[in-house]
Amino acid sequence: MKKYYRALVLMIMLLGVHFSSTAQIKTEHLYCENKTNPIGVDNVNPELTWILSSQKQNKKQSAYQIQVSENSSFTSSIIWNSNKVNSEQSVGITYQGPDLKSLTKYFWRVKVWDEKGKSSPWSTVASWQMGILNSADWKAQWITMGYKEDPERQSPAFRKEVFIRKKVQSATLCVTSHGLYQAFLNGKKIVNAYLTPGWTSYNKRLQYQVYDVTNMLAEGKNAIGALLGSGWYRGTLAWSDNKNLYGNELALLLQLNINYTDGTSEVLGTDSTWKAQKSSIVYSEIYNGETIDARKKTGKWKSAGYNDNQWPSVLTKPYGFGNLVATYNQPVTKHEEIQPVKIITTPDGDTVIDFGQNLVGWVVAEVSGNKGDSLIIDHAEMLDKNGNFYTENLRVAKQKNIYILSGDGVEHFEPHFTWQGFQYIRIKGNVKNLSEDNFKAVVLYSDMPETGSFTTSNKLLNQLQHNIQWGQKGNFLDVPTDCPQRDERLGWTGDAQVFFKTAAFNMDVNNFFSKWMKDVAADQFENGSIPHVIPNVLGANQGGSAGWGDVSTIIPWNMYLLYGNKKVLARQYNSMKSWVDYMKTQSTGYLWNSGNHFGDWLFYRPDDDTDGRSAITDKNLIAQCFFAHSTQLLINSAEILGKDEDVTTYTRLLQEIKAAFLKEYVTPNGRLVSDTQTAYVLALNFDMLPKNLREQAANRLTENIKRYGYHLTTGFLGTPYLCSVLSEFGYHDLAYTLLMQQNYPSWLYPVTKGATTIWERWDGLKPNGDFQNPGMNSFNHYAYGAIGDWMYRNLAGINTSEEPGEVGYKKIILRPHFKNHILSEEVKRQNKNDTLSEVKATLRTYYGTINSHWKIKGEKIIYHIEIPVNTTADVYLPVSDINFLKENNKPVKSTNKFTIKTENGETKVSLGSGKYSFSFNL
Q1: CB-CB neighbours of 526 under 10 Å
Q2: Where is the Alpha-L-rhamnosidase six-hairpin glycosidase domain (predicted)?
Q3: In angstroms, rounded to a whole number, what is the distance separating the alpha carbons of residues 755 and 739?
Q4: Cα(552)–Cα(637) distance, rounded to whole angstroms?
Q5: Counting CB atoms within 10 angstroms of each CB, which of 468, 768, 841, 861 has the fewest?
Q6: CB burial readout 643-668, b (16+ within 10 A) else e
Q7: Would you say the CATH fold of 825-921 matches that of 2-130?
């Protein structure tokens, strides 16, 4: 009996320990500068973030302690100890220790105290490594080829062998180039990164990358190598043979810093002792593709022991280091591998492979044949109505990769310094016996963590979400491009700003856009005008368009709201202010009625078959709305940053802007001079109308939609706000009607036509099977994918508070629209299964994962939610009597863990972290 009693006591004790450990708050997922263990940080006061977890509800952080050391064991060399700081802040804590040193690795850990004052254990140890913080720390020299280039500008190969005589403790490689590079060490590519050093305004900001190569070095001989390609630096961009925009000479800068176990160190780098030779990449351009002649391979030049006596010596160049910056965003990397769906012979007799998905990247070929045999791969997004290979919408971009075989067994071919946008490839050349097994497609995009998921009970809607995500993947290659296939692929500012909020749901784009916004400021014209594309490759005076230039205010403000990124507001503030001042200088009596504007680009209009220039919404009306909106965002930012004088100045300006709008564009009865959906949407969304005119303006908007047969007619600038405005003014059912329309123009029309990405035009493929104007008809755009923001925020209900101190999902607003009705009988006949019975969405934030999942069972709604630790949430439910509201099958009125308020037929439940399950009747 005593044995049994002792065993029972021990079991209870163990269960208690287990319960205590699972209930205890834990620190997980440590981030420095929003990345896991980053290498190459140039912020001398890096920001630290951690995510907390707990099995219990209503858990919060009340204090934290951070330690930073140069020793991973923390037994010595602790350089900064924050000591206990009473704060709930767990995102973006600024390092405040001693000055940090170039290329030094630092380790950090954190522990926290919960709302009851109970301490967590120390977190696992994380790290970051600094970049090169001073120009004097660059010991390497810029080098370029010592031979004369061919007209085709064959890609050069650079190499150098070094001898390591001691045991290596750590080794860091820093690399950048004029042009694109791939770097190798002892025959191996250093990292899964492509199109490095990325695309920036090179003459002002040239990124370098930092790699830990400790495990790639060996005692004895080591070979360092690099390939260079023209890329964005000197390749053709935009139109009219627009090349050599940043320079006409490729160059390499590479530095290897080695620390030995005996305490000594050594710095090796590019200098006059390096060699360079022409490679087997005989041609490479972003738009046109790449030609590789395997007969010209120079053996194992990437490996040690190769005889390079015949290679010419390089030349050193005094390019300097003043424009070099560390890489902040994630690199372009390989992701999905897609196998062919089928191989077909077209009516024209072409051999074509269908990959089943419009994607961006390239095709890897494994082939064998005779020396001199060629394999030619053309790329296209579509087949025409007859089933033939269609490339007319590529304009002058060739998108052609050519591989010439060496005849040496099975040969591996893939490009280096180009990419293609395609679903189909056409195979030509004289290589025999090819099949689907010889090819696979590799998808490339910036390595941003996926953060959001969105699924519903409707298959077409799920495909739309898929298309939005793949449109983002295909166009987020270091910069947010407008299209990935034709002779453009530029960072159009208007496209990026309208899609930003959707992008931030799908992926963590904080660092991606932080980097790009620095180039927005760098390329901003002296008069404050913003170029149409960033980096600016279109030249002077190509800027200043309303809705495009406003990228300078809209994205920084939304980065603050969605990520809590106050730093970006401070960094971009002068750029924001200069843009608003530019609009003011272009105005007459506070009315911005000058300049060239794109207007509501590519809106729907039956007789518009060109490029959207016939926009029926007055372009100056649009400009005035964005003038006001950017001014408001500048005021908001000034308030956050404590710039009180600017708040006063620009508040007065905003009042004048709105008064000028009313005088010029609104009749005494409240009708806008442009009686269009976009006009009313912008006026309502940007608060251009007095309160007494807003409801009738919203009603006019709905009447316009009904006149068009319950269809939208908006373009790039009206579409992002259309459904949000309808929902805000009580017309959510109409917004849902627009979403679920399957006839052109609508979001689901391309889905019914087999689209796997978002199209540039509402009818890129017309109902009769013809294509739209090939001069501008990309089948992989993302602008109209901006509807994703509304889907997450209204169907799934996930929002962040916009109050200071609550942004970045510190406080979460959950407000799904559970009831979805189609209003029009005509639309009901068109759309089957139009009412959603289930919506599930997740969003991974810097506090943890939000889960919002509702489904309808009979007359009951079941709503499952998950709120991350250290956050709170307000949940809005369409319940007027809390007697009928349950949580976990218990009446909410019987518990004291919620704060409940019922008003206007809606119940607000305020709660803390944890998992909850609400239920109520429709």
Answers
A1: 7
A2: 450-795
A3: 16
A4: 12
A5: 768
A6: beebbeebeebbebbbebbbebbbee
A7: no
* C-alpha distances in Å from residue 884, one per residue of 264, 573, 658, 866: 73, 49, 46, 22
C-alpha distances (whole Å) from 506 to each of 461, 509, 659, 714, 791 are 15, 9, 38, 24, 12
Q: How far apart are CA 383 and CA 347, in angstroms?
A: 11
**C-alpha–C-alpha distance, residues 783 and 476, integer Å:** 13
Q: What is the pLDDT averaged over residues 574-594?
A: 97
Cα–Cα distance, 787 to 723 (Å, whole number): 8
pLDDT in tens, 75-93: 888 999 999 999 999 999 9
**Interval 767-792: pLDDT, tens:** 999 999 999 999 999 999 999 999 99
CA dihedral (161, 166, 169, 173) in degrees, to 10, reads -20
Start-to-end CA distance of the chain, whole Å, equals: 57
CB 364 within 8 A of CB 440: yes
Render pLDDT for 896-918 as a digit per residue (tens, 0 to 9).
Answer: 889 999 998 899 999 999 999 99
Query: How far is it, in rounded angstroms, from Cα 738 to Cα 680?
Result: 16
Q: List b or e across 773-806, with b for residues whose CB sees 16 or more CB atoms inside 10 angstroms.
A: eeebbbbbbbbbbbbbbbbbbbbbbbbbbeeeeb
Query: Which ranges of 545-599 does DSSP label H, i.e. alpha helix?
Result: 551-563, 566-585
Q: How far apart are CA 707 and CA 832, in angstroms?
A: 22
Write the single-letter amino acid at 729: F
760 is catalytic: yes
Enumerate the β-bridge partners of residue 854: 839, 863
User: What does residue 191 show for φ and ψ, rounded to 5 degrees?
Assistant: -160, 160
Q: Are 209 and 197 in contact (CB under 8 A)?
A: yes
Which amino acid, 921? N
Please give the DSSP secondary-structure letter assigned to residue 217.
-
> Among 392, 488, 645, 664, which one carries the catalytic annotation?
488
The domain made up of 135-277+299-328 has a fold known as Jelly Rolls (2.60.120)
For residue 391, the one-letter residue type is T
Kindly calculate the radius of gyration of the chain based on its CA atoms and give it in whole angstroms.
29
Copy the structure tokens of residue 354. Answer: 């269908």
Eight-class DSSP state of 746: S
Instruction: Please give the full DSSP string across 71-119, using - where no structure is assigned.
Output: STT-SS-EEEE---EE----SSEEP-SSPP-TT-EEEEEEEEEETTSPB
CB atoms within 10 A of CB 147: 15
Token pair for 200 = 């920036």
Hey, how many other C-beta atoms are within 10 angstroms of the C-beta on 891?
A: 12
Euclidean distance between CA atoms 280 and 374, whole angstroms? 14
Catalytic residue among 161, 285, 290, 760: 760
- Separation between Cα atoms, residue 448 and residue 313, nearest integer Å: 39
Alpha-carbon separation of residue 668 from 460, 625, 662, 687, 689 (angstroms):
44, 19, 9, 17, 12
Tokens 């005494």 belong to residue: 668
Question: What is the mean pLDDT of the segment spanning 219-245?
Answer: 95
Q: Which fold has domain 825-921?
A: Maltose phosphorylase, domain 3 (2.60.420)
- pTM score: 0.96
The CATH topology of domain 2-130 is Immunoglobulin-like (2.60.40)
Report whether 599 contacts 520 (CB < 8 A). no
Catalytic residue status for 414: no
Q: What is the CATH number of domain 330-507+741-795?
A: 2.60.120.260
473-490 pLDDT tens trace:
999 999 999 999 999 999
The token duo for 33 is 């500068």
- pLDDT-based confidence at 21, cuts 50/70/90? very low
CB neighbour burial string for 253-263, b if at least 16 within 10 angstroms, e if fewer: bbbbbbbbeee
Asked if 762 contacts 479 with a C-beta cutoff of 8 angstroms, the reply is no
Distance (Å, rounded) from C-alpha 414 to C-alpha 540? 37
Q: Given a cut of 90, is residue 630 above it in pLDDT?
A: yes
**pLDDT in the model for residue 823:** 57
Q: Tell me if residue 57 falls in helix, strand or coil.
A: coil
Task: Return the domain boundaries, the chain.
Answer: 2-130, 135-277+299-328, 330-507+741-795, 825-921
